[in-house]
Amino acid sequence: MKIDRRDWLFICFVVVVAGIFLAISGSEKTRVVPDDEMHGIVYKTAYRSAPAPDSSIFRKAFFRPDKKGAETFCEPCHNLRGVPYPPGHPQKNRCLFCHKLKKKL
Ligand code: HEC
Ligand code: HEC
Predict the structure, then answer these.
(1) Does 42 share its domain with 17?
(2) Choice from 85, 91, 96, 101 to test ligand 2 binding pocket (greatest atom count within 8 A of CB)
(3) Pick from 21, 32, 74, 87: most CB atoms within 10 A?
(4) Do 15 and 38 sit in the same domain of this protein?
(5) What parts of the chain have a pLDDT lower than 50?
């Protein structure tokens, strides 16, 4: 089989995507959002339209928590309570891209 230019482009593309994927999964040392009373509102908002525990596996598989809705609570409360950010903490929007919620389903 002859590997032409387009094949090489495709191979490079796959390698780059795999590399990005690894880089992202490797950096998942970021703290998860604690599942405590303080963060109850976050979980309640994110999972407010979650399928019932006895619903089909497909509904559960396709359910996505409402992260955008839940994120609106993070910063106001953290500021109000003076929760410190570590030095050099990244641009503080979209908290839940980095800080994962605990799995609820
Ligand atoms: C109602 C107040 C409140 C809201 C809303 C809130 N937090 Fe917090 N969070 C706190 C307080 C207070 C702490 C300090 C530690 C503690 O008491 O849990 C904290 C601690 C944390 C920590 C550190 C936990 C650890 O292991 O040290 C992370 C990460 C965090 N919050 C992320 C988030 C994210 C992300 C959101 C939004 C999706 C959020 N919080 C919303 C009050 C809140
Ligand atoms: C681009 C990724 C990213 C985003 C976005 C982000 N963080 Fe962080 N955050 C980190 C990293 C990395 C750390 C340091 C490692 C750790 O403690 O999890 C951290 C640390 C923290 C800590 C201190 C944890 C501890 O126990 O010392 C808190 C609290 C926190 N982040 C809250 C938030 C909140 C609230 C938001 C949204 C307003 C947010 N973060 C957005 C990556 C992020």
Answers:
(1) no
(2) 85
(3) 74
(4) no
(5) none
Q: Compute CA distances 37 → 58, 81, 93, whole Å.
A: 30, 15, 23
Which is the closest atom of ligand 1 to the Cα of 34? 24
Q: What is the pLDDT of residue 69?
A: 96
Nearest-CA residue for ligand 2 atom 37 is 95
Distances from the Cα of 2 to the Cα of 6, 8, 22, 70, 77, angstroms: 11, 11, 29, 52, 60
What integer pLDDT is reported at residue 59 of this predicted model? 92
> 55 C-alpha vs ligand 1 centroid, how far in Å?
31
Residue 3's pLDDT is 84
Same domain, residue pair 72 and 95: yes
pTM of the predicted structure, to 2 decimals: 0.82
